[in-house]
């Protein structure tokens, strides 16, 4: 660590890692699945924690009827309730910085595949295990405890620090959209997604789609009389994989500043079929297949053009089959529609974060684009707020059994965020 300023050192020394781990453990224990009342419970817990810090609080019921009319709205889960939570500190006489994190999590899946219970934070081998520990309750804990350290050290920020705790990121970003619509924008923002401690000034897009393939039912004993939608899906799936390969090969040939941020990835813009449902009875030829997936989109790519590219690939595959020529598959765009977004590397927020990370770790910051969709795009595209992704852990440990985040990463990110807040907002 090369931090010599006495105020900065006092703040870093005030960071309460033990308290952070206790907070994270409590938050992991709340099963805050998208659309569940667990989202509300998690938000209430975060709001109470921020209030104890002395933050100026705004906690409100999200009006989903109004929000659904916004062109950037997307969601998969139906919600009866949802809370927005923002905690503010600082005098407001300087720049406004946002720390943004989501409390919603994906399902745990088959719990027998977990080393430890998914809804109980377990500390082992230098990691915190549990659903949401990485994605992204750990990052949110870092943001809150960076703000707490500033408060505990008796430091007042000249500018404004906003902690945005949001719902619905995993299924479309309704929480951040609601927060931006309420007027919470700033001069810079950090979304504390898992980035392997890399500073990410770019995030890819991810568009959910649903593909319906028609067949014709028949008794299984005379299956030749029917048309299996499962069999008809095979050439369409291959066409989608060919599309993925072609799009990513083209991306690797580009040599602009954004494309260079994705050099580490062989598939920066992946196309994934995550759900396939077909048939209604074991001895009946499947008359319908429904496949759902996500479609990676490059930064700067036109969303409608990208959608047409997938639709045309499906249509070409259908034209090679006599049945599908007469009964074409249906492509629908549904659920999460994450546009891509970026912030120039030379922006003061990006450079402040890079310098703070280097001062904390003694190592130069690594800039990289993230291949997943995130709420960064709502802050950038809708809130006109320059934003980066920066947080603890590796996204490869998310959305799978034994999700985990390294305690060392939690410490580094909390220290870095505290330093960024002091330098970006200024000290009163």
Can you put this structure into words, describing what you see?
- With 428 residues, the protein is α+β, with helices and mostly antiparallel strands.
- It folds into two domains: 6-203 and 340-425, Aminopeptidase (3-Layer(aba) Sandwich); 205-338, 2-Layer Sandwich (Alpha-Beta Plaits).
- 37% of the residues lie in helices and 20% in strands.
- It has helices spanning 6-13, 17-28, 37-52, 64-67, 133-152, 174-181, 229-253, 257-260, 303-319, 322-326, 348-361, 376-381, 407-425, and strands at residues 56-61, 83-89, 96-102, 122-124, 127-129, 160-166, 188-191, 202-203, 205-214, 271-278, 288-297, 330-338, 341-342, 387-389, 404-406.
- The chain has a six-stranded mixed beta sheet, sandwiched between helices.
- α11 (348-361) packs across α13 (407-425).
- The longest helix is centred in the middle third of the chain and has 25 residues, at 229-253.
- The model has no long low-confidence stretch (mean pLDDT 97).
